[in-house]
Amino acid sequence: MYIIIAILAFGLLIAIHEFGHFVAAKLCRVQVNEFSIGMGPAIFKKQAGETLYSLRWLPIGGYCAMEGEDGDEEGKVNPRSFAVKPAWQKMIILVAGAAMNFLVGFVIVAVIYSSAAGFVTNQVVETVEGFKYAENGIEPGDVIYSIDGHRVFYSSDFYTYMGRAGATVDMVVIRDGEKVELKDYGLKPEDPDGYRYGVSFGTVEATLWQKLRYSGYTSWNFVRIVWMGLSDLVRGVIGIDEMSGVVGIVGAINDIGNEVEEQTQSVGAAIQEVMYLVAFIAVNLAVMNLLPIPALDGGRLLFVVINAFSALIFKKTIDPKYEGYVHAAGMVVLLGFMAYVMVSDILKFI
User: Fold this and answer.
1) Greater model confidence, 191 or 173
2) Single pTM value for the model
3) Which domains does the chain have, with CATH numbers?
4) Active-site residue list
């Protein structure tokens, strides 16, 4: 059941992403030639007006093919071509897919939090006596504002950034309405009495405003977690072999669903945990698609910005033909990388 949920979720997230591009393109009066969910051979096709709608076999992508996306044919200018639209409209169209994914992630979290009774805040209500850092450090009533420059919105942020910190951190707390800096602050996670890092945090009632607020915090934290993962990858903390693609993620969702169901004896609790992971994946897709990599939305955005500055300063832009070559090469590399990760995932299962 959880494998089916995962596959359907991937298809839905792709559809919503491409639908964001589709709606933005239509609003900007750009001609959409094809709206496709999935890649590879078509299962279903239907022409409706100027747009061909298709469903394809491989649920690993999709596309919204716009007229002139890689430049108009020589000697042919379509007033509804993507290529002739102003830079700000191009940017709206390109960002719309990621924006829809982020919105879906937020909505899923908000639905999960709709039944919450309260949330754990970032305000310290108690410190354990005898901890090395308790003196001249965190005090009851302090609101943890930031750790090593990272904003702390609720208790989960505190544990996330403390878990990534070294022997000491630079912490900022709000005490009596003023910010207090705790430089080179030593913290140890071990605590025999169960108070991790020697502090406990307060709670707040889950009113409608707080539910929306903490849904926003969680969605933003998903973005930060993705950036942490990318940072670790670039720094070599984690290797490419530790990454997972569609196959690995579907397997992880299945494992989590079955594990939670077994522990709680509740299908509802398992589905809620699975949907929380789907929300994270939705935000992950939003962030990854905006990376300045050729063939991704972020790569196309980069060219829009470069062309805008080039037109302003040099009165000329990059030939769309060459931009198309760059994106085509980027697509080949991305597909090759996806294939590598997929094979790696399958070998892990074997």
Assistant:
1) 173
2) 0.86
3) 1-116+207-350 (no CATH), 118-205 (2.30.42.10)
4) 18
